[in-house]
Specification:
The chain has about 475 residues and is α/β, with parallel strands linked by helices. Helix content is about 40%, strand content about 10%.
Length: about 475
């Protein structure tokens, strides 16, 4: 196979070629490392490139693939396929910066569970992808790396906080990428960069053993150019681990998320609610985001689903609760006192705010999330008489210029801008439900605009099935940026 064609293959095609022996993990990893070296800096995709480690892992994967073919046994679903890890997650022996100058030089001694699963699955790690400080904002602009840029228009931000991961996949620097999502951080860059991204149900992917989110807001997820690629990465990442505080329902024995994402696996006729009114009082929806949602609703109707437009009352209490919890999480990061001055203005602002929140207020904010989740489960997504899924815009606006959300002189204003840009995504972090962003729309300038589907807790498979239906009806895989 011509080396120039390797990144044109989907991740699942690459894995199949490795199993068949027509592509070697070493040549595939070298191919991606060359692209990272050539294009990565301009995109701000990676904080750390681990070429030597990746090639050593690829050589081991190649030896294992040869043995598996000789012995007639199977391999993990992404064996030999390179997968970068977001720089909020620990990989043993590799620096973890958390997107912060305050943590430069930190080298963990153990893998977290995400890295351990990727290592056990035989996926070489080409590097750690760029993230904003502590993953707090919905842009990827920090003090340790260039800003993550949208490959479709490099004057625009790749979003955040998994902006580096999305830039890497959208530009063909990685076939798929690990991402994480505490308020939209997988779905935001998926929308901005024209990818499919999934935030799975709370507890489906372990956040341990050292980075547990005590609020349940954040979870690791997957970014891919196709639904099946992201679903296959989810198969690698998913599963309970000792000490996990949550455990999402597992698939039936023998089933996989990749199989659920097969376009021939129809989900049956569903009832889908469409929300287009932003749930935040000061958020305004751009016409292109509205057009994207209405277009997706029409495709769903063409596929035989019942789609209704519904309106929910704008409720500022959810935003208040989310802000309090987010601020406390920022304050929980153990930053040495002498390194506090290295933090970004937004981070310092959130930490100061978090330290002032009394314990009863924090508990009340968490209770608001639980009440919201119960209300959604009992009414909007009720098993009897409710809707099966909710369709909405992913974001309130198309991709924004680099720097458009930042406001170092007024961090409170920056946080307000972030909320107005992402009014729809935090709902599913608060409730723990799964949600996906699908790249079904383009602006007249060719910029990607995502739409979001949210489902019932534990029904990630159904979301993947409908997503595969939509992908088959309106294929997006052939859309690639000029730098491809």
């Amino acid at each position: 196979m011509a080396d120039s064609a390797l990144h044109d293959l989907t991740a699942t095609e690459q894995a199949a070629a490795i199993r068949a022996g027509t592509v070697s993990p070493v040549e595939l990893t070298r191919h991606y490392l060359e692209r990272v070296d050539r294009l990565g800096a301009d995109l701000g995709a990676f904080v750390t490139v681990t070429g030597e480690l990746a090639l050593d892992q690829a050589a081991a994967a190649e030896k294992e693939a040869l043995a598996a073919r000789r012995e007639g046994r199977g391999l993990p679903p992404l064996h030999g396929v390179p997968v970068p890890v977001k720089d909020l997650n620990n990989v043993a022996g590799v620096p973890t910066s958390l997107g912060s100058a305050a943590f430069e030089g930190l080298v963990p001694e153990v893998d977290d569970h995400v890295a351990a699963r990727l290592r056990a699955g035989g996926s070489p790690m080409p590097g750690k992808t760029n993230t904003p400080e502590f993953g707090l904002p919905s842009h990827t602009e920090n003090r340790i790396a260039p800003p993550a840029r949208c490959p479709w228009d490099t004057t625009r931000s790749a979003g955040g906080s998994s902006g580096g991961a999305a830039a890497a996949v959208a530009a063909g620097l990685a076939p798929v990428a690990h991402a994480s999502d505490g308020g939209g951080s997988t779905r935001i860059p998926a929308s901005v960069c024209g990818l499919f991204g999934i935030k799975p149900s709370r507890g489906l992917v372990s956040s341990g053993p050292t980075l547990h989110d005590v609020t349940g807001l954040a979870t690791s997820g997957a970014l891919g150019r196709t639904v099946r690629d992201a679903a296959t990465l989810l198969d690698v990442l998913a599963g309970p681990m000792p000490g996990d505080p949550y455990a999402a329902p597992a698939l039936p024995p023998g089933d996989t998320y990749a199989a659920c994402a097969h376009p021939g696996r129809a989900p049956g006729r569903l009832r889908i609610a469409t929300l287009t009114d932003p749930p935040l009082p000061d958020a305004e929806l751009h016409p292109e985001c509205l057009a994207a949602t209405r277009g997706a609703a029409e495709v769903l109707r063409e596929l035989g689903h019942e789609v209704d437009e519904v309106a929910l009352p704008s409720d500022g209490s959810i935003a208040v609760a989310f802000t309090k919890v987010w601020a406390v999480l920022a304050a929980l990061r153990p930053v040495p006192e002498e390194r506090e001055e290295l933090l970004m203005p937004l981070t310092r602002h959130m930490r100061e705010r978090g330290r002032r929140i009394p314990a009863p207020e924090f508990a009340a904010a968490l209770s608001t999330f639980r009440s919201l989740g119960q209300a959604v489960a009992d009414t909007l997504l009720a098993a009897e008489g409710g809707y099966d899924m909710v369709l909405s815009p992913t974001l309130s606006r198309p991709p924004l210029p680099v720097g458009a959300l930042r406001c170092d002189a007024d961090p409170a204003e920056e946080f307000r801008r972030i909320g107005a840009f992402t009014p729809f995504t935090p709902l599913y972090n608060a409730t723990g439900q799964p949600a996906v962003s699908l790249p079904l729309h383009r602006t007249p300038e060719g910029l990607p605009v995502g739409v979001m589907l949210g489902g019932r807790y534990g029904e990630d498979a159904a979301l993947l099935s409908v997503s595969a239906q939509l992908e088959a009806a309106r294929p997006w895989h052939g859309h690639r940026p000029a730098m491809w």
